[in-house]
Every structure is written in C-alpha cells, then in structure tokens.
Amino acid sequence: MADVLTAIALFILAAIALGLFAVLRSRVAIERMMAVQLLGTGGAATLLLLGAATAQPALADVALLLVLLSAFSCAAFTLGERGAAADEPAEPGQSS
Amino acid sequence: MISLADSFTLAFVAAGALLFLAGTLGLLRFPDTLSRLHALSKADNLGLGLIVIGLLPQTQTIAGGVKLVCIWLLAQLSAATASQLIAGIAARRQPDA
Amino acid sequence: MSPSTIPRLRPSRSALLLRALGFLALWLALIGTAANDWPFGLLAAAAATWASLALWPPDSRLSLPGLARFVLRFLPQAVVAGVDIARRAMAPRIALNPGLVDYQTTLPAGLAQGAMCAVMSLQPGKLPISCQASGAMLIHCLDTETQVGAELAADEAAFLRILPERGRHG
What we know:
The structure holds 3 protein chains of 3 kinds.
Chain A: H1 2-25, H2 29-53, H3 58-84
Chain B: H1 4-29, H2 33-55, H3 62-93
Helix pairs in contact in B: 1-2, 2-3
Chain C: H1 13-31, H2 38-55, H3 64-90, E1 99-104, H4 111-120, E2 126-131, E3 136-141, H5 148-160
Helix pairs in contact in C: 1-2
C-alpha cells in the first residue's frame, strides 16, 4: 500500500512539474502567480500522500503551510497590483 | 487480497491523481490565460479533495482525519478567492482575453 | 466590498463567544491539543475573532436548512466542474469557445455578492472576474454557446434561499 501511495505521489509531482514548466515559460506575471497556486495545491496533495505512505502525520502540517503560503502570496500580489494601478479605473471595461 | 478500506483509498487517490494530470494538460493546451486559470482552480482542487477523501480511511486518529478535511476546506476556500483575484487582474491587463 | 460601507452594529456577546469558540476548535483540529500550544491557540482565536468582525459582520445570519440544500446542490456541481475540465483537457481536439458574459445580479452588495462570486468560481465553466456594488458582474465562460444566463439565474435563486431576508446589508 505504501509503495502504491508513494508512486501516486511521484506521479502527481511529475504532473505539477510539467504544469509549472507550462506556466513559468510564459512572461506574464499572472501566469507566474498561477504557478504559486499550482505549487500550493499539488504540493499539498503530494505531501499528504507521502505522509500517509510513511505514516508521518507531521507532513500534513507542511501541507497546511503550503496551502496557507500560496493563499497569502496571492493576496499580497493582488494588493500590490491594486497599489500599482491605483490611478487607473478600478473596474475593467464593460463595453463587451 | 486487499482490504475494503485500501481499495477505497486506491480508487479515490487514483482519481485525484488523474485530475491533477488533467489540470496540467489544461495548462498546457488551453489557449488563453483565463481558460488556463479555469483548469488550475477547478481540476486541481477537486483532485486534492478526492485525495483527502481517499486518505481518510488511512488516518490512525479521528483528529488526523478532521485535520485532513480542514486542510482541504482551507485550500478550497483560498482557491475560490485566489482564482477570482487573479482573474480580475488578468482581465484588467488585457480586457479582451 | 469595503467593510466601511457595512453598517456597524454592536455585536452581541454570545455571538462573539460562539465565533471565538469556533476558531479555537479549528485551531485545535489543525495544531492538536498539546498543553504547550493552548496559549497560542487562545491568542490565535482572539485575533481571528477580531479580524472576522471587519470581514464578516455579526448581524448576518444564514438559514441552516437553506445552507444544507445549498451545499447539496453545489458540491456535485464542483465535481462536475472538475470532470468537465478533465474532459475538455483530455479531448483530442480542444473545443473551447471562451468569452466574457455580462450578468446582473440582484444580490445585495458586500458579503452576499462576495460569497456568490466565490461559489460561482467553482461552477462548471464559469469564473467571475469583477463584481460591482450595482450588481453588474463580468464572468469568464469556457463555452459561451451554452445557456449561461439561465444557469446563472438558477444558481442565484438557490443562493438567495440561504439568506433569511433579502437586502439584509444592502
């Protein structure tokens, strides 16, 4: 059972790595931010699986930390963006 | 012969892994930033949820299970908010994305 | 969305205590019940209660049966949303017709609209982009061919049922 869980964890890690490659290739800052989200969710999944495989519940704490870090970095990014674009109209165009 | 709990775990965890793969494929194949954001926020969080459900029979204590569910709830909540925040910025930068 | 637009009421002491106990329970579930950690847990619960006063006005009540029906309705849809993405991403040819859709919501500005947006971002093929106080929403859809407007109206009706009174903080 532990071997299977480890194998699935590695599979997810590979999928995240591929996704990270896709978003980090882009120059757009928003896609970089998506990389943080991807790392938060996927990293948490990998850590939870490894924690179950190795019977180390402490890994769940690391997973929790990853989720929280990605949430806070996203909020900080948005606040910084708002500050930078303060002189522009707050809402995007509604003509579409 | 594997136990019922183990086969439950395997089924859900494998489905979760499949959704992570789908999320990555979406990131690679979807044409624009906002569509890629759809793939990220929906597929990956469902994947995490399935993995959490699958791991529940493997936890030794009830507190451990509650903790897993709390981690997933926090992840889901932050993803729902974060994806909107990112989408707002994306649309502001390129209104016809 | 700014908290200053919400009328400030004096929150009742029991409501505050209940909220603090809830945060403490969350802390205990996440960190554990070791005796050394209790002071930090109490501090964290107090801080969370203080922060929640600004973000989540204590006078906003939800109807519990409505909330249960709501969860039963939206949880399967979150699963459908993930499967929908998987199906599209694994299809041999990417069949997307992405675009922006305007929608006018009747929900009161503030918490209700924010919560509606958060829920909507988990729905299949929809991602809210902006929501103004007037109720004008901009939603990004993966497939603009489908009946997006009707789906949105149905979702909103289900959402309205968890609020006991309309225009509570309008």
